[in-house]
Design a protein that fits this description.
This protein has 252 residues and is an alpha/beta fold. It is built from eight helices and seven strands, in the order βαβαβαβαβαβαααβ. Strands 3-2-1-4-5-6-7 form a seven-stranded parallel sheet, with helices on both faces. Strand 4 (83-86), helix 4 (102-130) and strand 5 (133-138) form a beta-alpha-beta unit. Bound molecules: NADPH dihydro-nicotinamide-adenine-dinucleotide phosphate (NDP) and 2-hydroxyethylsulfonic acid. 2-hydroxyethylsulfonic acid binds next to loops.
Length: 252
């Protein structure tokens, strides 16, 4: 029987790249996100290219009841999830704390922390029932450092870093591995979302150096997940070669 990976935020960027890599490796997939059309298209593409089974589940990770009910709608064979990739996440705005936008704060906290918790609460219980599992949490260099105006996004990713450690302790008796993957700058829709559709401002973030591609992170996640059973990679911080810290980027 094929293994199963459940990926949140599979409609774009790192989540979508993970879907390609795990399908290539023969995993059946549960793909989730809010944009149903993208999930359907990706599902068709992966089914055709890799002959794997794919189910899609459309929900907003911020909606606790919907997360629980959509996941519980999955049939028993799809609950045998081997790998959960907690990837759905975003940044909104880049403002000093005193001018922060309340809605942006709530969106980041509700998505990056609470959404990750809602999904994990359901799927970790399936993994406990299955006797094993591997959870990969997408943190960030912003969960390791704090930069000017990054305040709440950085706090949300520091929370992911703490949850990563806490999950690893709590799930230890159940044979569930927990890995945190903390990327530096990855060129995806991330900056367009952060700057609310301002493409010119978003593209400036990646100007003058080669950022990571979503596939670099997906391959890193695959490396962590494909280690032998007795090995767990607790965390990996992965940066573009041109980036030393969150803000120290060598631009040509
Ligand atoms: P993208 O914006 O390209 O993709 C984000 C994904 O998250 C989309 O699939 C989106 O799907 C999903 N998502 C966002 N909000 C919600 C929500 N409320 N409910 C369900 N799904 C949601 O960004 P990345 O691929 O770059 O980001 C993936 C993860 O990696 C995030 O956690 C991000 O913080 C982290 N990261 C990114 C870095 C970067 O530089 N790009 C660096 C470090 C970490 P949809 O809109 O369809 O719901
Ligand atoms: C995304 C990377 O540096 O914009 O998490 O916070 S950064």
């Amino acid at each position: 029987m094929s293994k199963i990976a459940l990926i949140t935020g599979a409609t774009a960027g790192i989540g979508e790249a993970c879907a390609h890599v795990f399908a290539r490796e023969g995993y059946d997939l549960v793909l989730t996100g809010r944009r149903a059309d993208r999930l359907e298209k990706l599902s068709e593409q992966l089914t055709r290219a890799y002959h794997v089974k794919v189910v899609t589940s459309v929900f907003d990770v911020r909606d606790r009841q919907d997360v629980i009910s959509k996941l519980e709608e999955l049939s028993p064979e799809w609950r045998k999830v081997n790998v959960l990739i907690n990837n759905a996440g975003l940044s909104q705005g880049l403002d000093p704390i005193q001018n922060g936008n309340y809605d942006d704060w709530e969106t980041m906290i509700d998505t990056n922390i609470k959404g990750l918790l809602y999904v994990t609460r359901v799927v970790s219980n399936w993994m406990i029932g299955n006797g094993s599992g591997h959870i990969v949490n997408l943190g960030s260099i912003a969960g390791k450092e704090v930069y000017a105006n990054g305040n709440v996004y950085c706090a949300s990713k520091h929370a992911v870093d703490a949850l990563n450690k806490g999950m690893r302790i709590d799930l230890l008796p159940y044979g569930i591995k927990v890995t945190g993957v903390n990327p530096g700058a990855v060129e995806t829709e991330f900056s367009q979302v952060r700057f609310k559709g301002d493409k010119a401002r978003a593209s400036k973030v990646y100007e003058g150096f080669e950022p990571l591609a979503a596939m670099d992170i997906a391959e890193t996640i695959w490396f962590a997940v494909s280690r032998p059973a007795h090995v767990n990679i607790n965390e990996l911080t992965v940066m573009p070669a041109a980036q030393a810290t969150a803000t120290n980027i060598f631009r040509k």
